[in-house]
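Exercise 7 asks you to align residues with tokens for two separate proteins.
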Amino acid sequence: MGYSFSLDDVAFLRSRHGEKALQTVSGLELSASSMIADVPEVRSRYSPHDAALIETVRCRRRAAAKLWAPDDLLLDDAALQQATASAVAADRTAEVAARFPGAVVHDVTCSIGAELRELVRSSDIAGVIGSDLDEVRLAMARHNVPGATLLNADALTPTSTADVVLADPARRSEAGRVFRLDQLTPPLLELMTTYAGRVLIVKCAPGLDHMMLRNRFGFDGQVQITSLDGGVREACLWSGPGVEPGRRATVLRTHGGTVTRFEVTDGESDDVDAGDAGEWIVDPDGAIVRAGLVRHYAHRFGLWQLDPQIAYLTGHSVPDGARGFRVVEQTGVTEKALRKALAAHDCGPLEILVRGLDVDPDRLRKKLKLKGSRPMSVVLTRIGRRGVAFVCEPGVRF
């Protein structure tokens, strides 16, 4: 757990003296090896706000991999973990602006304002409101997003007539990460009941069982699974007037200062066959797998499945943005068969991918005791009831 900020801490950090103190502390190393010396120095100059200064600087440094322009942000560790990545928030902002031009958007769990920062930048969104029960987080948001209207309010008590309501229920408690829908803060089903009949966008953990949500609780909106640079970031539930039901996968990738995107939806054809391996094994992006759109993706790019129940695809080419493994040899999955095949190709460093089999890649790699020099990959999977291994050249991102 990180440092727990007070309102006095935030007020100090927002002051001119606090800004200068942050500049000074930013010049310190603040690493595990330097903290013994750094902490007393900061404490001697800035007590009782020394811990707040150190935590802010360290959080800003960690935020650089997730949030754009983090050097002026006020934030704590828990808020940073929950915050939506800027690229994902910007993509959602563009979509909201396109779907609901001129809308007023209310983020009812705004926390430190990571999502609000992107919303206020859109000229096609008429107004931005943020609210939260945590007064300290709201004070941070006032610093981070000076252009937003901010309220201290419970997400389950509607406080505006905004056209679009955005929520991100907390997925952590004092005991750690939570997984049940009723353990979220606020609970997901209560949120959906509170804002029934309005456009509601709820950000959830990427592992959300959206099929259970439909079948058991009658969710009839749209499920969007989003990945960023190969990592699945969230499952987003869209519901209300103007939202078509269905599933879609949004794949975002950063290239320098730009973000590219493509989507696959369940409105596309999923007519693909299963067959023998082609030149390449293709590992679809996690968002496509989580959204249940592997077959739709395969159809679009002329790929096919190795097995109808397994997410690996195969074909004679690899789609842009996907990761492909050029097949060298097909063999069995026993240690003896793998060791023989890999040794014949002078394999040393080995990446192991597994789907459909109960195999621990790290344990298997140690048992194989490969002594060659050539980097390779092996894809372990199941075709029907039979385990199969594909010895491949190292994976390539196209």
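Second protein for Exercise 7:
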Amino acid sequence: MKRTLKDYLLLMLKGMGMGAADVVPGVSGGTIAFIVGIYDELIDSIKSINAESLKLFFTGKWAAFWNKINGNFLLFLLAGIGISVFSLAKVITWLLTDYPVLVWSFFFGLVLASTWFVGKDIKGWNWKTILGFICGAVLAFYITVATPAETPSNWLFIFFCGAIAICAMILPGISGSFILVLLGKYFFIMDAVKTLDLVVIGIFGAGACIGITSFSRVLSFALKHFRNITLAVLTGFMLGSLNKVWPWKEVVDNTHGMAIETNVMPNQFVVEAIVLMVVGFFLVTFLEKLSSKKPAEK
């Protein structure tokens, strides 16, 4: 696909949106990728990093390697994600601490709209897609109510965390950050990012590279051969994950410094929260229409 510099700058902005979502423990960067119309290209580009493309790299055929892996696409997208993660890590963690209801309200509207638009892409509902939808919703809901664990901080476990979390980050509705919360390593990794602990970031990143290149093959195969069922499962994921992004919560336990929360009825910032939900919903609507217009213009 030919792209202009303007297209690449827009792609970087989309990456920044993915990065901002990935920082929040409850929202997936994969959801943003779906909204802005780059999900299939993202999965296929990651999948192309394999033995064949690596052989081109190690034999000095770097231009062929770059084209094989859709390098320009990945470069600008990853640049946007990186800019967002490193610049917003402090801001997002501060907002989640001081203004959680408002942050969650915006993302609730965003995820709710995403569920609707991804579900619209399913061509024909039958017992298979309905079952996939239900299974996805139940699994995501279970993940959101699972209890965070107390876990070690050795290098092998950090590598494992990177491999697992990155798989969730490219699944719409399943948040990689929230998986880190369940694994007891969200604040550990956020602190490493804020303090530029290169050892921890490097080990986590190595795990992420292995995890994403492996999982992308499975996801690409599923989207190509079982697209409707896969989209139904992903839609269920997003619906089930709404439990996590419900804005109004109260802490029921704080074992080992990791807060365990339960949802409650709206009790503060109700008007502001509704406004932000509407903003999030219509932002997705705008982005979806913007993305759907692009193929027609070419």
